[in-house]
Amino acid sequence: MMPGSGTGKATTRPDGSSTRGILAINAGSSSIKFTRFDAATLVPGLSGRIERIGAPGTSLTLAIGAAPGEVMPALTRTDHAGAAAHLIEWLRARDPACVLAAVGHRVVHGGPDYRATTLLTPAVVESLRPLTPMDPEHLPHEIALIELWMARFPGVPQWACFDTAFHHDLPPLARLLAIPRRYAAMGVRRYGFHGLSYEFLMEELGRSGGTRAAGGRVILAHLGNGASLAAVRDGKPVDTSMAFTPAAGIPMGTRSGDLDPGLAWYLARLEGMDAAKFNRMVNSESGLLGVSGTSADMRDLLEREPVDPRAAEAVGMFCLAVRKCIGAFAAALGGLDTLVFSGGIGANSAVVRERACAELGFLGIEIDALQNRVGADTISGPGARVSVRVIETDEELVIARAVRQALDGGSAEPTQSTSCREKP
Ligand code: ADP
In this prediction, what percent of the chain has a pLDDT beyond 90? Predict the structure, then answer.
C-alpha cells in the first residue's frame, strides 16, 4: 500500500485530524528536510531530514510523528535522487492512509521573474532550467527532485515556494551590483535568499511583538550552515547580505561570503585556477571549514576553540562578520528597534549571539547574559533600546501555509485525482 492508494478519499482520524496531507520539502545542497502537515489544520505530523547527501554516512533523522527509535532503513543510494526515492518509498509504507492534497517545494532561486508561490507545471519546470547557472549548488538538485515527485505523484498539485521572493522588491539601490549596466538587464542583481525563513520570522515577530515591532526597523539574522542577514523597515525588505548567489555576504559553514573580486584573477595566474575550481572553493571549501581547516560545524568549532587557535579564529571571524553586518544594516535603516537571531547557530548558540552583539552598545544593543544563556525569547536587557529576540525558524510551515493559501485560492485545483497513486 502507498499513501492515498485505494479509494484515494480523505477521511477524518479519531483525533480529528484529516488523512489529507500537505508535504513540505526543503532540499538543500546536501540535505532534504520534509514535514507532512495536516491539510486542514496545518498541524505538523511526520517530519525528518536526510543529511550528508552525496557524502559518506548519509543519514536520516526523524522528528515529530515517528515512533521513538524508529529509523529509516539504510540508504542504498546516497545521491539526491536516490535519497528522495528512498524517502518516497518510506513515506508510502509509513502512512498508507495518507492522501496528499499537495506538495510544496522550497526553490532557492527564482531568478528575475518568480515572486510568488507557483503551481509547478512542466512549462514552469522548463523555465527554471535556464536559471541553474545562477545557483548551480541548489537548483539542479531541486529541479531533479521536483521532476521525481511530479512523476511519482502525477495527480497531486505541486507548488514552488521561492527563497528569493521575499526580497523581490528590494529598493533599486540595494538591488544594484556595481558592474556594467548591461548585466542588470540580463538579470544580474542582488536577489537575496532565506526568504521563507525571513517570512516566518516577520510573522512571528508580528505575533509576539505586535505590529509596532514588525513595523519598525528590524534586522533578521538567519545563522545556519548557510547564513545571511536582512534589514526590514515598515515590514518591507531594505537590504540583505546575500546577493546574486547564496555564496555572498558573511562567511558560512563552507561558503566564503564576500571576497575581494581581484582574488579570482590572482588565483588564476598563481595556480591556474579556473572558474569551476573557484566556484567549488568559495562554495564548498571556504568559510568556517576553510579557516579552521577542520570543520564547517559551529558546535565542533566552539568545542575545539580552547585548544585550537584556528577553530577560535574561524568562530571569531564569523562573529565579527555578523557584528559588522548588523552595524551596516542599522546604518541603512537609520537606527534599529529589533534584532532577531535564528537558524541553527542563531537560535542555539548563546556564545555566538553574545560575541556578535559585543561592542554594539552604541546602537542600543545590550544583551542580558542570563536571559541569553537560558535561551529566553527576548535576550535584551530590561532598559535596552533595541529588543533582541531569538526565534526558531520553520521554513516548512511557511511552505505549507503558502500551499494551503494557493489551494484555498482555487487556482490549484488539479485536473487529476489528488490521491498519491503512482504512475504505472
Ligand atoms: P541549515 O542551514 O543546513 O538548515 P542549520 O540552520 O540547522 O543549518 O544550522 C546548522 C549549524 O547550527 C551548524 O553549524 C551547527 O553546528 C549549528 N548549531 C546547532 N546547534 C548549535 C548549538 N547548540 N551551538 C552552536 N551551534 C549550533
Answer: 71
What is the enclosing helix (H) or strand (E) of 139? Answer: helix 139-152
Assign 23 to helix, strand or coil.
strand
pLDDT computed for residue 19 by the predictor:
66
Question: pLDDT digit string (tens) for 243-263?
Answer: 999 999 999 999 999 999 999
Could you say which residues of the chain have pLDDT below 50? 1-8, 411-424
Q: How many CB atoms lie within 10 A of CB 307?
A: 8
Atom of ligand 1 nearest to the CA of 299: 16
| Backbone region of residue 5 per phi and psi (left: phi > 0; alpha: psi in -120 to 50; beta: other values) | beta
Hey, which residues does 50 pair with through a beta bridge? 32, 60
Q: Which pLDDT score is estimated for 28? A: 77
Let me know if 394 is a catalytic residue.
no
State whether the beta carbon of 287 lies less than 6 angstroms from ligand 1: no
What spacing in Å lies between the alpha carbon of 206 and ligand 1's midpoint? 25
pLDDT of residue 39: 92
CB distance 28 to ligand 1 below 6 Å:
yes
Of 31, 345, 354, 374, best ligand 1 pocket probe by most atoms within 8 Å of the beta carbon = 345
Exposed/middle/buried for 315, CB within 10 Å: 0-12, 13-18, 19+?
buried
Residue 251 Cβ inside 6 Å of ligand 1? The answer reads: no
Give just the sign of the alpha carbon dihedral 349, 350, 355, 361: positive
User: Grid cell 499537495 — which residue?
Assistant: 102
